[in-house]
Predict the structure.
Amino acid sequence: MSMIQFTRNYTDRSNDYGFQFEFFCDKCGNGHMSPFIASKVGVATGLLRAAGSFFGGTIGRAAHAGTHLKDALRGQGWDDAYAEAVDAGKQHFKNCTRCGKWVCPRSCWNEGRGLCETCAPDLAEEAASIQAHVAVEQAREKARTVDHVATLDMKQTRTAVCPHCAAKVDGGRFCTECGKPLAAQKLSCGKCGTDIPASAKFCPECGSPRSG
């Protein structure tokens, strides 16, 4: 068979009863489904198998022989069906002579240039896209000039969850779920006044037992 020039993206939807193919645009992926082409051998074998399930015997053996015949003819049948589907499918796509891709005419073809939009982008679409991207960049730059965390005290120790009940927290000094303080309370030694870690049982400075 001679070389078939068409979209490189397709899905074979064929089954035992016939052939069908789905072709996709090389650029955006929009697709076209070819008409179903029935396989005469496959249909006949299916009918014989259905009849054989009721009667068995000779009809069942004929269905088995038909399956072998279908397998023997499947290659040529598939090739012929695929070639026919390609010829029909080409009517739904445009071939770019610059890059060789087959694209859908509605979304990916520049009619004025006679090329796909990858090789010859639509200037109006590009201008609209550029404007939108520049607007986003300008919005980012403008946002950077505003202090969005003026009320955020970065000197205060922050936590994502409450250390008492593990509820998620969003700022503040107390948990909105259990009401307990989010920051660990500082304890001091009753004898020497040194700050004592919450996990310590004795003062690290004088060794006195922690009170409270």
Notes: Residues 202 and 210 are 5 Å apart (CA to CA). Residues 57-89 form the longest helix (33 residues).
